[in-house]
Amino acid sequence: MRIDSTDRKILDQLQRDASLSLDEIAKAVGSSKTPVWNRIRKMRDAGIIGAQTVRLDAEALGFEACFFVLIRTSEHEAEWQKAFLKALKERPEVQEAHRLAGDIDYILKVRVKNARAYDAFYQALISEVKVHNVTALLSMEEIKSTTALPL
Amino acid sequence: MRIDSTDRKILDQLQRDASLSLDEIAKAVGSSKTPVWNRIRKMRDAGIIGAQTVRLDAEALGFEACFFVLIRTSEHEAEWQKAFLKALKERPEVQEAHRLAGDIDYILKVRVKNARAYDAFYQALISEVKVHNVTALLSMEEIKSTTALPL
DNA sequence: TATGAAAGTTTTAAATA
DNA sequence: TATTTAAAACTTTCATA
Question: Could you give a single Gene Ontology term from the biological process aspect (chains A, B) (predicted)?
């Protein structure tokens, strides 16, 4: 699917504030309701626009600890990988999981209530799948956090 | 502000799909429109509910590279830190930035179009502020990515 | 907490450039 | 083909019971 500059402007508005009305978006991108609506629908159907969410204040809700977890493994078989990915997807405290190129195999972002909850997560994970080496980096301060793309 | 189990259910619905109508949320949490609306408004005013956003498909929009960047610095003065944080906040390719406890001082998540764009970012950053040691981890596969809290 | 009415929004369809 | 207009269905918001 081709995306032109008007589409890009619409996406930029939406990722800044998805609660804007069609009229407001139309005004901001210099168009009007119906064409904007058609573009949004097309991009939704194409999967370019995904789920609508709200950002919640993690601290206020008692999620006071955030860890980045660096994982090295000696296992590289398909079976092991399948079990590992499944475990990550199922655990709700894992907010991000990436397979990496190079020395370190995986990185996770894990959001939990406290250090103890992290330990519970860690114990559960290593009992489910064998990992070679795990380093946890504890976040002291969230300087920035956004999902917005620099369109 | 105190959050009860009904509030938590509402938040959970909203972070799953912020486009749900009040009626749908009310039904899901076993209440009716007005109380749900009052609770949502209260939580918005308290800042527990933040901005509404849409998730965009980064790959489809040409953002094909994602790096996690581990930074060690020898500088720990207030002036340096101020300049560094400012640089991070201003750069739109930095999606996450955390100050860490321990050996590594900062971790960034950087989303760019390609490896070349990452290099441009890296050169710009180190010319703005002095950093001691930088390790970039390249993501090969985004296994999971969510901002949802395990309420 | 529930009801309901006013204002505003989304969605579809038809008409127009 | 893309945009404007129009109208129906639905949602949010808020006053009142």
Answer: response to amino acid
Given an 8 Å threshold on Cβ–Cβ distance, is B68 in contact with A144?
no
In CATH terms, the fold of domain A65-138 is: Alpha-Beta Plaits (3.30.70)
Q: At how many degrees (to 10) do helices A22-29 and A5-16 cross? A: 130
For residues B146 and A95, the answer to whether their CB atoms sit within 8 Å is yes
Q: Is B126 helix (H, G, I), strand (E, B) or coil?
A: helix
Backbone angles phi, psi at B133, to 5 degrees: -155, 130
Architecture of domain A5-45 in this structure: Orthogonal Bundle (1.10)
**Domain residue ranges of chain A, discontinuous segments joined by +:** 5-45, 65-138
Q: Are A71 and A117 spatial neighbours (Cβ–Cβ below 8 Å)?
A: no
Tell me how long chain A is. Answer: 151
B144 to A56: CB separation less than 8 angstroms, yes or no: no
Using a CB-CB distance cutoff of 8 angstroms, which residues of chain A are in contact with residue B85? Answer: 143
Count the helix, strand and coil residues of chain A and give each as a percent rounded to the nearest 5: 40, 30, 30
